[in-house]
Amino acid sequence: VIMMKQQREKPVKVKELIERKKKYKKLREEKLLEKLRKEKAKIEEAPNDTKVDAKMDAKVDAEAKPATKTVSLAVPGSIMDNAQSPELRSYLAGQVARAAAIFRADEVIVYDDLCSGTLREDFIAVKKGVGCIQMARILQYLECPQYLRKYFFPLHDDLGYAGLLNPLDIPHHLRSHEECPFREGIVTTKPTKHGRGSYANIGLKGDIKLDLKLEPGLRVTVKLDEGQDPAADEGNLRGKVVSPQAPKQELGLYWGYTVRLADSLGAVFSQPTFGRSYDLCVGTSERGDSVDDVKVPDFDHLLVVFGGVKGLEAALDADQSLVASDPKDLFDLYLNLCPHQGSRTIRTEEAILVGLSALRPKVYPHLGLLNETQPVVGASVIAMECIYRVSPLRKKRKKCNLLKSWNQGAENVVAFTSSSPDIDSTGCPGSRYNIYVCDINTPWEVHRIVGSEEPITQVEWDLSGARLAVADGKGVIQVWMMKDYVINDWVLMNTFNDMGGEQILCIAWFHNGKKLSSSPEQQEGILYSEKFKPVPFAPTCCQFGKRPMEGLVVASVSGLLATFILRIDASVLSAIEKLGPELHTLAMVDFAYEKNGDMALACVSRSSSACIRMYSLQIRVSGDSMNVTVQNLPAIFPTLHSSYIVSCVQFLLKEDPKGLLIAMHEKTRHSCVMESEVTRWRLSEKLDPVSKHFGGSTSVVCIQTWEKGEHCKLPGEVKEILVPFSTLDNGPPSHIVVSTITGTLHCLSGDSFTKVFSKEHELRGAKDSVEGMELKRLKAELGPVIQSIRFSWSACSFLLLDVNSSLCLYRLVHHNEPGGNLSTAYGVHLLEYSLVMGLDWWDIILSLRPGMAETVCERVADFAAKQPLPLQQYFYTRIMALKMNLYRYVPGGGYRVASCNTLVMLHSVAAAFRSVLRPSELASHDKGPAENLASILAGKMGELGCDLDKVCLQVEAKEFTVEASTLQSLQQLIQWVSDLALFLIATAPTIQQTRGPTYELLRDGNALGTLRELLVIIRLWGLFWQHCMPVFTKALDNLDAISLAYKLLTKISLNPEMDVSLLGMFHSLCVHAARLGAT
């Protein structure tokens, strides 16, 4: 209280507060100045070549020295003067820019090969339209990202037609929704506090805050700070100004080119951009050496010079500063880039593309690009991401034991087992062991197939995904199949009890012989028949007409092989053979398919794991008998030390038994394994000499032998090796996943067999049993952390079942594009492959970046529209289903999903209507009544106008005659078509403002044509039987709703953009037109 009184007696004046703030501010400024003086002193004490200018432009400085190798192109500006019009001049420069971007040029030099003296360093020409100046300006314009062009390129005559040129679409030309750790930007004039960094516009909704204070108007390369979401953190983004070489050095991204002007040919060599002189100069001329016979040496800075209309000889004669008499003396290599050319001359823009294509395989190895570029059929995996983690049987309080198979067919369905008793409908305990299935898209919806009192040892789907084979502990095998393709209703097809109670180790279904392949060269094709070629792959067993037979092969612990064939007449053929003359107790068995229809087996015995026995299985059927032949193949002895144990054996590909993966570890006194080795073995053929004492007719013989290849050492004991079922190019897989007992996932490169990355699987779910326990104790009590893993057919994702009964879906992250997802081309290729093969595409869409879904959908639709008409009709439903799945990943794409769904329904209704038409006589063997009606509507639209009655007079009414009972069954479909037509008309006036479900339909000419065709058919049917006509609530008594709907839909077809006059007519007609009843 005394202190408060004192404060009241001596109040602080406002002036004193202001003076205190001024003193405090002055003190802060002095401290800041002192700090800047110290930093300046440190810079001055450093060597001159290490001084840093804080206000440097992030674009490559002319005197900067890059840390990577560079490629420069020198192009003469006189080729612009050879063009006949301004449009062609711009297009020619655009061709040069496209070539420079395609072949990753770091610099483009535009030189005056005529030495006309019309150039200045500030890009100002003495007269308008100088070729060098215009080409340089267009090259710079096209290289600049689209969102920065308005800041750096004001209106100019040289850029009059630049907006019509093809875009370069290089990595730094990013859209606002695309993700990349680097971006190009411009420093803005937004005010900042003293000592703070500037703001820059990098093509996002909000500006980014930089770490440096720079002058406004500078172009900068910005690296975004990690852990930021550009979509969520608008206005709060931070970044660091880096060199334009940083994206190339850190991620291998091509980041555009720089443009330099040279007033002569000599200035090309004397003024290098990157600080040093060009250590390898290549000249191009038809009088040079053939490029096919030349080996390009290593270099740091490569310069490729192209001549003009008169060649490099004319450029040398025009430059008085050069004393050489032959252009060949100026270059290290003087090459003819197109030997044996058919044309008399090759234009410079053509020579650039042809020459760089010829130099690419000779130059790219020095740039380290041949190993970085990924083919379309293989993607480099750099990480894995857990998409979801669920406990399918958590509500039932059951524990999952076995995840043995992922359906490779039309649906992504997974089967797994549980060891907890089930409860039947009466509440009584049921079977102890049960088999469940679920869709990976909805893993929480689990459906029980069957229960058993014996443990389930094997579960395996066939290649089509239609049948599921189940084996229990007593050797009983059951084959189940979905009833009417419903996942929650299953039917028992067959039961086999011929194994004598032996435990089943492995089940393999017969191969159906269906296989397509695609190489990187075929990816550029348009037709599906060009992209995907059938592979000669024989079925395991054929019946009459070479039709594949359904069957399976079962291997038991004692080495017995049981073969079962499921015939069409529901009968079963069976045969049992043994592996070799002696029975062995097997520990592991794996199957693979050969191209000739045989099957290969790899077996590991429990008594001698140092030897891996290989067998070939041949199955032939003749009438009611089956012959099974087992042949020995060369065995593998992975190690000579008896102290090593084989923990896993897996064929490299199920459709290529010439590669085998073997995981081994050394025996230890304790249960803990310190290290395992995974080795790749290859089956090869070689010629060996034969001794004369054998008396053979040949001195050499061809034998097969296994050769040890690459190996990789991993910590811990290997539990399982995960490989794809097959690859698109029939080559080795791009990646392999290895799981260990301790719960670690290792990803190995399929080419070099080196470890790319590792990830520890986290245990969750059973917190009560896990909490408070050490990791080693937990693994000792619960067993392997990872029970089983399975790839999807595309190898883009895999499922994992851990010890806590958690089902986890992992997505593999690829390094094809910024953002770490599948590239657009590779994603489109996989989706088209799944479309043709009838496979599910859910796991592929899961690996796409959300912003890519719309682009991928457009490309898939474009390629589908270019297929032959019969093929389009065959794949129509699947293409629309694929588009619906892709649009669900597009923000605000719900109306497109509804449009696709309506199109599928419209297509189905049209097929139903056309199928009931039975013409009495066919005038043409190619066209029926529906085809004739479609051709009349398409060919005579302007002649017939919008009158429905005139169209009805043009067709043969007797060809559309249908029985009354049939029309009565189609009445609901007729009502749906009419309601759809009126709904489109009612929403047409507002479609310009709000995009709804009808937005796509009103702009689809084919859909409108089909709808108009159906309205004509409905009108004709109404003439025969009035009761089949649709029912409406009319505003006027004398209103013909079908005719009015046909008229308005015809006007929309003629004017898809719906101008103001058409919209006004819609408004006036909708007021007095028919209204929708139930809808």
From TrEMBL:
It holds the Pfam family Med16_N. It is found in: Nucleus. One of its GO terms (cellular component) is mediator complex. Transmembrane segments: none annotated. Residues 830-1021 form the Mediator of RNA polymerase II transcription subunit 16 central helical bridge domain. SUPFAM superfamilies: alpha/beta knot, Nucleic acid-binding proteins, WD40 repeat-like. Residues 500-686 form the Mediator complex subunit Med16 N-terminal domain. Residues 14-46 form a coiled coil. Belongs to the class IV-like SAM-binding methyltransferase superfamily. Component of the Mediator complex. Component of the Mediator complex, a coactivator involved in the regulated transcription of nearly all RNA polymerase II-dependent genes. Mediator functions as a bridge to convey information from gene-specific regulatory proteins to the basal RNA polymerase II transcription machinery. Mediator is recruited to promoters by direct interactions with regulatory proteins and serves as a scaffold for the assembly of a functional preinitiation complex with RNA polymerase II and the general transcription factors. This is Mediator of RNA polymerase II transcription subunit 16. It comes from Darwinula stevensoni.
